């Protein structure tokens, strides 16, 4: 978690659930919240995440604000903070959809704050870790369900919770035993859950698994560990390296036909994907470059594309704590925004390139 603080404004997009968006304030700009037709990057954090908890987001916000009529907002979901263990992706995307409606000024909720953008504003979703599951689920899942379209999608550090937990079990027998106990309880609870009762796992056991603190339901546990994978993956098992091409065709390959991602001026229907080269939650046996190529192929077979700035960020950890890697990510995100929507000045890219060169020269080991 980050100890960073930031100035900004809260927007209540769903008062009945006490859910808000946090809009970062551009430095020294007193009129930042009155932009007509503003474009918004909505950032969705991973398990246990909350406002200003991801180290690179304030830096990203500072560069987003250099692009005319753009702002960055972090979204609070019911699953934020300690709520992740009793929520699911369907609930998350329902709330994300409400936030999109709010920003477009089309919400029917009279209790929500007055939106600061308009129907003409562009909206891009960006997820970190489990936030990537939210973004992809939003785009492909249940295509017959009405969901407001967005203008771009970014997946950063899309990892497999299942493969990450297997790696931890192999390294620590205490984690292995805790996992086996959680799995036993969860499988036995399926009958009760089907009757409407929500069964939860013992906190003292889930804490040994290494997940963020919070109450964990048996249903969410099974979704994250997906014991029937790779043949029958759960909703949360979207990014495992052993998923078949047929399975990927139903997730990445279904993005275009869902109609929830608006075609861009240069890239058509495209998403940006970045993985971290030194992601501590990904087994070292996973070939990240090959995995990205498989996802790109699935997108292309479904008449969508992976945006050119996609790739593996060198010497980057899961949440990108490394300074040089953060600038690398910012560069890729802005390139994607320029390709998909436009408005980013070339001067901004030149400054970022100079910064990256300076960081490399000062410390080549970064």
Automatic annotation (TrEMBL):
InterPro entries: AB_hydrolase_fold, SidJ. PANTHER family: UPF0613 PROTEIN PB24D3.06C. This is Uncharacterized protein.
């Amino acid at each position: 978690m980050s100890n960073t603080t930031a100035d900004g404004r809260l927007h209540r997009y769903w008062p009945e659930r006490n859910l808000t968006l946090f809009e970062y304030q551009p430095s020294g700009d007193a009129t930042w919240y009155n932009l007509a037709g503003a474009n918004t990057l909505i950032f969705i954090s991973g398990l246990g995440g909350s406002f200003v908890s991801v180290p690179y987001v304030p830096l990203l916000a500072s560069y987003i604000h250099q692009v005319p009529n753009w702002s960055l907002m972090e979204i609070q979901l019911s699953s934020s903070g300690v709520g992740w263990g009793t929520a699911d992706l369907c609930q998350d995307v329902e709330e994300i959809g409400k936030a999109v409606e709010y920003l477009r000024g089309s919400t029917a909720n009279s209790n929500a704050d007055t939106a600061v953008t308009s129907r003409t504003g562009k909206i891009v979703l960006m997820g970190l870790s489990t936030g990537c599951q939210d973004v992809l689920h939003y785009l492909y899942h249940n295509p017959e369900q009405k969901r407001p379209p967005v203008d771009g999608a970014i997946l950063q550090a899309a990892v497999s919770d299942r493969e990450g937990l297997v790696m931890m079990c192999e390294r620590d027998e205490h984690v292995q035993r805790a996992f086996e106990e959680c799995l036993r309880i969860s499988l036995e609870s399926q009958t009760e859950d089907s009757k409407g009762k929500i069964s939860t796992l013992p906190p003292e056991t889930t804490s040994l698994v290494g997940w963020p603190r919070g109450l964990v339901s048996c249903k969410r546990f099974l979704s994250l560990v997906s014991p029937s994978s790779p043949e029958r993956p759960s909703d949360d098992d979207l990014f495992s390296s052993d998923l078949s091409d047929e399975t990927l065709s139903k997730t990445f390959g279904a993005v275009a036909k869902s109609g929830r991602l608006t075609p861009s001026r240069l890239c058509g229907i495209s998403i940006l994907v970045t993985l971290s080269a030194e992601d501590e939650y990904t087994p070292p046996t996973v070939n990240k470059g090959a995995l990205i190529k498989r996802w790109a192929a699935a997108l292309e077979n479904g008449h969508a594309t992976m945006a050119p700035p996609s790739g593996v960020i060198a010497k980057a950890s899961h949440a990108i704590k490394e300074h040089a890697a953060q600038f690398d990510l910012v560069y890729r995100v802005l390139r994607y925004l320029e390709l998909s929507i436009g408005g980013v000045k070339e001067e901004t890219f030149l400054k970022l390139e100079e910064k990256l060169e300076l960081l490399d020269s000062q410390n080549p080991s970064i």
